[in-house]
Design goal:
This protein has about 400 residues and is α/β, with parallel strands linked by helices. It folds into three domains: about 1-40; about 55-165 and about 365-389, no CATH class; about 175-350, Glycogen Phosphorylase B (Rossmann fold, 3-Layer(aba) Sandwich). Helices cover about 40% and strands about 15% of the residues. The chain contains twelve helices and 13 strands. It has helices spanning about 1-30, 30-45, 55-65, 70-80, 100-115, 180-190, 215-225, 275-280, 315-325, 330-345, 350-365, 385-389; strands at about 85-90, 90-95, 120-125, 145, 145-150, 155, 200-210, 230-235, 260-265, 285-290, 295, 310, 375-380. It has a five-stranded parallel beta sheet. A four-stranded antiparallel beta sheet has the order 3-1-2-13, with helices on one face. It has a two-stranded parallel ribbon with strand order 4-6. β1 (about 85-90) and β2 (about 90-95) form a beta hairpin. The N and C termini lie far apart (about 90 Å). The structure holds 2-acetamido-2-deoxy-beta-D-glucopyranose. InterPro entries: CAP10, O-Glucosyltr/Glycosyltrsf_90. This is Glycosyl transferase CAP10 domain-containing protein. Keywords: Signal, Transferase. One of its GO terms (molecular function) is UDP-xylosyltransferase activity.
């Protein structure tokens, strides 16, 4: 009788042990990520300033190339790499040509707003996506919105898309994604309809196939639709389903409609992707792929504190999504911290503040006194009422 009872007990206990060990094992599997989060959060010193000084180290870094001053010959080497601007006696001047007029206009918006506070200066602003001053070459001073720290000398400025000139996505952003001040409000409103508990715990992505780097997420979505909903949309170059990885293109989805999902993906495009900052306003967790491409505000945001870092080759993609699902409270906090950072430190006044400091600091480095170049024309502020239309 005794051994029968023990046998029975074993029959009940054994599966129980397996379950306990199993659950414990899968929880232990997440220790590396949980530890990374703990370490990052402990190390992080929240930015408490109410101006743009959170981004000071980026500015220092960008200008460190020019510690000994910018010579006229350095500047001349930059002139045909971008659009030549001057500020003389609180007026803004520009060369006639600008490769992307709406982008120049997006840049000019911020400069004109500050013009009364800006010193006489002269700069070359690159409005292409791609940086222009590779580290392997002789440096020249050029302003670009995005770069790879170890590869480019470019001096970063806040992108034109904070105001206008962003990528036109038909039919959702026919005139181009811009007006960060308006987007902040639009996305916040929509996010309120999708509190964390109601969001789908699915990885979401809609965007074009700028590079094959995004394919693993699309393929994961096709294989395991309960984990990911990721599809390619058309871009201008779209000719057939081949350009959307063998499936018909998906419909474009406005950024605020991404808020229904807990896990939102950010990939680089040609350079850093404009959507990054928008995603945080959903109060979803941002999965940020790769760490090379920067905009001026990226280095103030930290992996695991504000977003989940994903390897460039997406080899940890599936694991990270499962981690997020099984550690809901932990990743919810990442979403909250990311949201709060962007809400508090990437306001329009922070963008203006960065422009002002950038121009002031850069101008101190010029070793000549700029005087009006007669071939430039004056850029006048747009009439207010026209801008509000
Ligand atoms: C004036 O600006 C034009 C256009 O950028 C440039 O080609 C030229 O070198 C400038 N001249 C001087 C004297 O700086």
């Amino acid at each position: 009788m005794k051994w029968m009872e023990s046998f029975h007990a074993l029959c009940i206990l054994f599966p129980l042990i397996i379950i306990i060990v199993g659950v414990h094992g899968s929880a232990a599997k997440w220790n590396k990520y949980k530890k990374a989060i703990d370490v990052a959060v402990k190390k992080y010193k929240p930015c408490t300033s109410n101006d743009c000084s959170c981004y000071q180290s980026m500015l220092d870094n960008d200008l460190s190339t020019w510690e000994e001053g910018i010579r006229r010959s350095d500047f001349d080497a930059a002139i045909d790499r971008g659009t030549h601007y001057q500020i003389i006696n609180h007026k803004l001047y520009r060369q006639t040509e600008c490769m992307f007029p709406f982008r120049c206009s997006g840049v000019e918006h911020f400069i004109l707003e500050l013009i009364d506070k800006l010193p006489d200066t002269e700069m070359v602003i690159n409005v292409r996506d791609y940086p222009q001053a590779p580290k392997w070459g002789k440096p020249f001073p050029i302003f670009s919105f995005s770069k790879v720290l170890k590869e480019n000398h470019d001096i970063m400025y806040p992108a034109w898309t904070f105001w206008e000139g962003g990528p036109a996505v038909w039919p959702i952003y026919p005139t181009g994604l811009g007006r960060w001040d308006e987007q902040r409000i639009i996305i916040t409103k929509e996010a309120a309809k999708h509190p964390w508990e109601k969001k789908k715990n699915v990885a979401f992505f809609r965007g074009s196939r700028t590079s094959a780097e995004r394919d693993p997420l699309i393929l994961l979505s096709r294989a395991e639709p309960d984990l990911a909903d990721a599809q390619y949309t058309k871009n201008q170059a779209w000719k057939s389903d081949k350009d959307t990885l063998g499936a018909p293109p998906a419909k474009e989805i406005k950024l605020e409609d991404h808020c229904k999902y807990k896990y939102l993906f950010n990939f680089r495009g040609v350079a850093a992707s404009f959507r990054f900052k928008h995603l945080f306003f959903c109060k979803s967790v941002v999965f940020h792929v790769g760490e090379d491409w920067l905009e001026f505000f990226y280095p103030a945001m930290k992996p695991w504190v504000h977003y989940i870092p994903v390897k460039q080759d997406l080899s940890d993609l599936r694991e990270l999504i499962v981690f997020a699902r099984e550690n809901d409270d932990t990743v919810k906090k990442i979403a909250e911290r990311g949201y709060e950072f962007i809400r508090d430190h990437l306001r329009m006044q922070d963008v203006s503040c960065y422009w002002q400091r950038l121009i002031a600091r850069y101008t101190e480095l010029l070793t000549w006194k700029p005087s009006l170049n007669k071939s430039l024309f004056e850029v006048k502020p747009k009439p207010k009422n026209k801008m509000e239309l």
